[in-house]
Structure formats: structure tokens, C-alpha cells
Amino acid sequence: MTKTIIVLKGYPRLSETFIAQELLGLEQAGMNLEIVSMRQPTDTRRHPVHDEIKAPVRYLPEYLHDDWPRVIRGFFTCLKHPGFFKVLLPFWRDLRRDWTRHRARRLGQAMVLAAELPSDAGWIHAHFIHTPASVAAYASVISGIPWSCSAHAKDIWTSPGWELKDKLSTARGVVTCTASGFAHLRGLAADQRRVHLSYHGLDLDRFSPFTSQRSSRRGDDPADPLIVLSVGRAVPKKGFDVLLHALALLKNDFSFRLVHVGGGEILADLQALAAKLDLAGMIDWKGALTQGEVLELYRQADVFALACRVTDDGDRDGLPNVLVEACSQGLVCVSTAISGVPELLSDGENGKLVEPENPAALAVALSELMRDPSLRQRLGAAAERRVRQHFDYHTSVSQLDALFRSGWRSET
């Protein structure tokens, strides 16, 4: 059986459990995988699913000068491939439109990848259509091995249109996980048959139903405050500052604690904002946790909140996996009507949706749920039914496995 090479930006990563879950599912479906990461891991913890994946892992030189002998070997090995000279044209075309050293780094990494491909490699698949797809596309030209990729959120919305068009024209297929991303990519593709929609699912065996009774807290007992949970890296697109401003509007009317899970580049800024809003004593900053630890928090919380936004550079979430996870536990969710979130949550039917960048509207939605345990129970139960009916990861793995086995879209 030929081997499929999976190119990732980093591995393993706590924030990308959905990728690890997919890889495990593909292995269990019989695919022969090898993982190639463009950078060394930075997380100090791992999810159990990472330990279940049997595929070997190889790391490319993150910076070419850090392992220049390997890069030089890759260059001379690739010189023997007819595809080496073919790759120079697309590389030059990319470099003219993006005159940065990052382009040279991607070509260098691609040369190392192509030079070190195992003899049984038959396919290259990248997760994310930005930099991992660049490495995969260059390596594909050099080696003559077809490539494909999975596109998610930031990689779609912050990549220039010309680059997406080029990749859509050379990849055998691109799969994405939201209808909004699907429509955007199809609008750029010369051949729309190359773009496929497949929602990420959950391994529902790991997220078994929460069968205990949720609390009937109403936020009127300082000794037993409501628990508002939010999970995500502290980055601008998550809108945690909006959430803090919304909670500041409620702090005199309800007793609550915000539990935040995740590290991130603006965590210190958020903590400073919380202090400025006089919320510091009402927040537990948990940092990065394992999937099992987060699952326990879903079961303890009363409300899940995530104030997703579109940032100035176009970055945004697709359909945050944490929303699907929270819903799987019957935990009512409040979020914003952007990207793929409305593909999971319908306002007033199985959750609450507000417009982004609106702390007042978010505060109103939170207050309605805080004071009404029966509403939380009804909406949370409806959200769980939707997840268990439509977001089982076996479905998404089966769809992706079928695409690989079909050769995606054969060249014409």
C-alpha cells in the first residue's frame, strides 16, 4: 500500500486535536500515513489521541540555516529530479508577488521533503492551504507525486486570492469544513469539482453524553456562582475582550465566575483588561489543558461563551471545535453569527447568536440564559441532538477516506 504524507505546520498541537483525531481515523480506515511537521512542537502537553497515532513523525528544518547540511543534501538530491527545474517557474511567480524570505524557506523545506520521501510515498496532503500547502505543492512538482489539502479558517481568509487560485489549480482536491469557506474557495476555483465540503466531527466515544443533572443556578447566590466557560487561544479573532466587556455589564446583577482555558499571545493583555474592568477576582485563567480536563469543565459549566470576530486582516474562525464539543455535552452556547458558527447554532433553537463586536448584545444573551435554567437545559439538549446527529467524526473520516481512495479528482 502506498503511503500518504501528511504535511502539518506543527505537530502535535493541543489546539489542533481535530487534525489528530482525523489522522487516527484514517489510520483505522487502513491508510498508511507518515506525518511531516514544518516545526518542532511547542506545547508541553499532549492529548491521548496523539499517543494512539502510529504514523512516524519527521520534522523539516524550521529555519534553513539551522540545518543547512540537510538543506544542501536536499538541493543536490532534487537536482536529479526532472521536476526540480519545473518548480522554479511557480516559485519565481510566487516570489515576485510576495517578495519575502518565507518563500525561499518554503522551497527549501519542500526540497528536503521531496528528497526524503519514502520510496512507497504515493500522495502528499497538507493541512492548511497557506504555508503547509506551499511546501506540499512545491514538493509535488519536484517529486511528481500528486497533492491535496485541507483548508480551515485563517488559512483561507488571510491568503491572497491569487495564491488560493494557484493552489486550487494544481491540487487534486481541497476539502474544507464550513459552507462559507466552501463557497469562497469554489468561487476562486477554475474547476469547482476540486473543492469539497466535509464538516469536522467529534469522536463521540470520547465525548459520551453527560447524563447528570445540570445546576439550576440563577446567579443570585454569591456562594454558588454561575460558571461561564470559554475555551480558546488568547488571540484577537476569539473576541475575548468583547466577552470581558459583556461580563462587566453583568457583574452587578449576577454572581458568576468566568473560566478561561488556553494560552496565547494576548493573554497578559486580557488579564490586564479584566483588572481594569474590575473582573479579575471573578475569573479563573486555566491555561492550556488536555481534552479530558476540558471535557470535565464542559460538564461543570452553566454557559459556554465565545465571541468570535473577523479581524482587520480577515482572520476568523471557521467552526470552532470547542463549540461542537460543548454542545456534545448539552452545554448551552452563546456565540457570534460569523463564518460557520450559524451552521451549528440557530439562535433561540439550540443556542444564542449575536452580532460580533457587540458587548451589549452579548450581555443580553448571557443574562437571558443566566436567569433561566430551564432555557439553558432546552437549548443545550437541542444542541446536543444536532451534534450527535450531524457531527460524528466517522462521517467526516469516511468522506475523506473516500476522496483519497478515488484519487480525488483525476487530472483531465
Name the features.
alpha/beta, 43% helix, Rossmann fold, single chain, 2 domains
What is the secondary structure topology, with strand pairs?
Elements: E1 3-8, H1 17-28, E2 32-37, H2 48-52, E3 57-59, H3 68-79, H4 83-97, H5 101-115, E4 121-127, H6 131-143, E5 147-151, H7 154-157, H8 161-170, E6 174-176, H9 179-188, E7 195-197, E8 226-231, H10 240-250, E9 256-261, H11 267-276, E10 283-287, H12 291-300, E11 303-305, H13 321-328, E12 333-336, E13 352-354, H14 359-370, H15 373-390, H16 393-405
Parallel strand pairs: 1-2, 1-4, 2-3, 4-5, 5-6, 6-7, 8-9, 8-11, 9-10, 11-12, 12-13
Helix pairs in contact: 1-16, 3-5, 4-6, 5-6, 10-14, 13-15
Question: How would you describe this structure to a colleague?
Answer:
The strands form two sheets. The chain has a seven-stranded parallel beta sheet, sandwiched between helices. Strands 10-9-8-11-12-13 form a six-stranded parallel beta sheet, sandwiched between helices. The chain folds into two domains: 3-201 and 392-405, Rossmann fold (3-Layer(aba) Sandwich), CATH 3.40.50.2000; 226-390, Rossmann fold (3-Layer(aba) Sandwich). It is of the alpha/beta class and 412 residues long. The model has no long low-confidence stretch (mean pLDDT 95). Helix 4 (83-97) packs antiparallel against helix 6 and helix 13 (321-328) crosses helix 15. The protein has helices at 17-28, 48-52, 68-79, 83-97, 101-115, 131-143, 154-157, 161-170, 179-188, 240-250, 267-276, 291-300, 321-328, 359-370, 373-390, 393-405, and strands at residues 3-8, 32-37, 57-59, 121-127, 147-151, 174-176, 195-197, 226-231, 256-261, 283-287, 303-305, 333-336, 352-354. It contains 16 helices and 13 strands.
